[in-house]
Amino acid sequence: MGSLKARFKEKADSLAIEIKDILKTHGNKVIGEVQLSQIYQGMRGITGLVSETSLLDAQEGIRFRGYSIPELQEKLPKAEGGSEPLPEGLFYLMLVGDLPSANDVELVTSNLQRRSHVPNHVFDTIEALPINSHPMTQFVVAIMALQTESHYQKRYAAGMNKKDYWDAVFDDAMDLIARLPRIAAYIYRRKYKNGEHIQPNGLLDWAGNFAHMLGYDDEGFMELMRLYMTIHADHEGGNVSAHTTHLVGSALSDPYLSFAAGMNGLAGPLHGLANQEVIKWIFEMREELNTESPSKEQIAEYVRKTLTAGKVVPGYGHAVLRKTDPRFTAQMEFGKKHMPEDPLVKTVWNIYETVPPILQSLGKIKNPWPNVDAHSGALLVHYGMVEYDFYTVLFGVSRALGVLASLCWDRALSLPIERPKSVTTDLVKSWLKGEGEIWGE
Ligand code: HAX
Fold first, then answer.
1. In angstroms, how far is the first alpha carbon of the chain from the final one?
2. For residue 89, which of 75, 345, 406, 439 sits 20 to 30 Å off, Cα-Cα?
3. What single string gives the DSSP state of each residue in 386-410?
4. Domain-by-domain residue ranges, the chain?
5. Is the distance from the beta carbon of residue 274 to the nearest atom of ligand 1 less than 6 Å?
6. At residue 298, does pLDDT exceed 50?
């Protein structure tokens, strides 16, 4: 991919020089302070990472290279007749920092098509797993099986110069993004559709072809996939999947190893698995109440029951956001446009009106508002994709766009191995008594 790779390299070289200058002049500037509580509480609020592809504002939500989701919906190229952005365009934007033209996006799409072949041993590896393995387990195992194809791994073993790391990471990132939809669709059709697989359609865009291979050729579902793959792609650098991919990559593990590690983090219920938990929770509520359309009073009662049982209300809360997630809002708008009368979608909206005041009343939850996962499942169910165990795989395919673009930047900027300092509570206690040294004092 001559042009995108060359364009990326040009941008990376110029930013690398700028960063060198910034650090030379301002490297000693203090950026914040760390409180004792923060090191026991998930490092919340500590700025300690650089991630070029997107930035999260607590009040406003995510911006990808400065563009909000509504701006992306307006400015990124679309499929013919469609109104949602093509995720390939977002990948281009995250990678090089400029909005792509329709032609730029076409080139990315065709490049991904050329790279999309998945070797048979990957499917054999998936087949070796019990059918009841969770789809995220199958996904991660398949990514690991695909690692045989890593250019980075082969070139490193052959003695690659460190100046070339970014080049091999770029090729692996493109290959992975190209192949993930085929792998994900294979897992879906294997587990839920009697192994009746669907061949790719080379005339479709990346997300449209993914929808097709999953077995959903409805134009509405294709549009949903384009939106879904765009809004789930990145959420700055500190979330578990992005941070893990970056961390593992910092040991110079190849992109397959790094991305698989990130996906293991995405599979946690406090992160990406929350999307399946939301629909599971709503289905259980509907079953228990024996109604397809629970009232707000019934929902409130069920929320209190969930909290009393010592469980979280899935899809609500966030470690950084303090307002309704704009990714939730984008999906709500999609629902209003395409399925305003769908009972499950309406239930999601009723939950939105019911849950925040209840969570707020507990007095301990910093963000009572919905996140991206509160809405996504209901839209999928509308088009017939009811197998909620699979939802996090969809999230994972999308997340590849952001974390792999970031990994290209990590190597192009020669970011070093990540290694923060940890302490023991014994050391903290003696430090509090004025004995012993801590944090380089
Ligand atoms: N339901 C019930 N309790 C909640 C809650 C929720 N939705 N959100 C937070 N809390 C609780 C916390 O568990 C914590 O309780 P304890 O003090 O008893 O341990 C307390 O409120 C304070 O938490 P916080 O500071 O507001 O939130 P954190 O930054 O620690 O955690 C989470 C953020 C997203 C993990 C949290 O809000 C949560 O568990 N939400 C539900 C799961 C979810 O939707 N996850 C997806 C998040 C978005 C994402 O990554 N998508 O992939």
1. 50
2. 345
3. --GGGHHHHHHHHHHHHHHHHHHHH
4. 1-31+51-414
5. yes
6. yes
CA distances from 194 to 126, 139, 188, 197, 221 (A): 14, 18, 10, 9, 21
Answer whether 365 contacts ligand 1 (Cβ < 6 A).
Answer: yes
DSSP annotation of 324 reads -
Any atom of ligand 1 within 6 Å of the Cβ of 234: no
The residue-averaged pLDDT of 209-233 equals 98
CATH superfamily of the domain spanning 1-31+51-414: Citrate Synthase, domain 1 (1.10.580.10)
Residue 366 CB–ligand 1 contact under 6 Å: yes
Amino acid at residue number 138:
Q
Asked if 117 is an active-site residue, the reply is no
Each residue of 164-201: pLDDT tens digit? 999 999 999 999 999 999 999 999 999 999 999 999 99
pTM across the whole model: 0.97
Residue 441 pLDDT > 50, yes or no? Answer: no
Q: Which of 215, 147, 223, 133 is nearest to 181 (CA)?
A: 215
> Does residue 58's CB lie within 6 angstroms of at least one atom of ligand 1?
no
436: confidence class by pLDDT, cuts 50, 70, 90: confident
Residue nearest to atom 47 of ligand 1 (CA): 271
CA dist 100 to 4, 8, 32, 312, Å?
10, 13, 36, 40
Q: Is residue 296 predicted with pLDDT exceeding 70?
A: yes
For residue 320, which atom of ligand 1 is closest to its CA?
29
Question: Which SS3 state, helix, strand or coil, does residue 436 take?
Answer: coil
Closest atom of ligand 1 relative to the 319 alpha carbon = 29
In the set 325, 373, 382, 410, the catalytic residue is: 373
Active site residue 382: no
Q: Which of 331, 364, 394 to mutate to test the pocket of ligand 1 (most atoms within 8 A of CB)?
A: 364
Q: Is the CB of 321 under 6 A from ligand 1?
A: no
CA 367 to ligand 1: nearest atom: 26
pLDDT bucket at 226, cuts 50 / 70 / 90: very high
Give CA–CA dist 180/397, Å, rounded. Answer: 6
- CB burial readout 263-301, b (16+ within 10 A) else e: bbbbbeeebbbbbbbbbbbbeebbeeeeeeebeeebbbe
> Which stretch of 313-327, 355-369, 424-438 has the lowest confidence by average pLDDT?
424-438
